[in-house]
Design brief:
By secondary structure, the chain is mainly α. It contains 5 helices and no strands. Helix 1 packs antiparallel against helix 3 (43-61) and helix 3 runs antiparallel to helix 4 (67-92).
Length: 123
């Protein structure tokens, strides 16, 4: 049980930092804006992503958030990572930028699996 908690929290905190904190603090930088426009998205799309990512990661890390809302957040991040990978692949071809979102999808999957293991153990 302790090992499961550690795995859950490490994977979830990685997602929290990479998808919540960093975007919240860097979304209005020129580099972030160039990244969004490079993929062909309008400027407001980056703001919309951050607007949904921050509550999503909060839903994952706050223990008292109801399970259906956590499931919704996991689904949203899954779509985010898949479409980020596809977007980079279509624009830039097969490179590290198209693989990186899939690595984070794997980390998210670990978080999701251990979230369910821990919630089953509470029953």
């Amino acid at each position: 049980m302790k090992r499961d908690k550690i795995i859950f929290w490490v994977s979830t905190i990685i997602i929290f930092i990479m998808e919540g904190l960093i975007p919240a603090f860097t979304s209005q930088t020129e580099l972030a804006k160039e990244g969004i426009s490079h993929l062909g998205y309008p400027a407001y799309f980056g703001t919309a992503l951050v607007f949904f990512k921050v509550p999503g990661v909060l839903a994952l890390v706050i223990p008292r958030v109801p399970k259906p809302i956590k499931e919704f957040a996991y689904a949203g991040f899954t779509f985010n990572f898949l479409f980020a990978s596809i977007g980079h692949f279509v624009v830039d071809g097969f490179d590290f930028q198209s693989i990186l979102p899939l690595i984070f999808l794997g980390i998210l999957a670990v978080s999701y699996i251990f979230f369910h293991r821990l919630s089953e153990n509470k029953k």
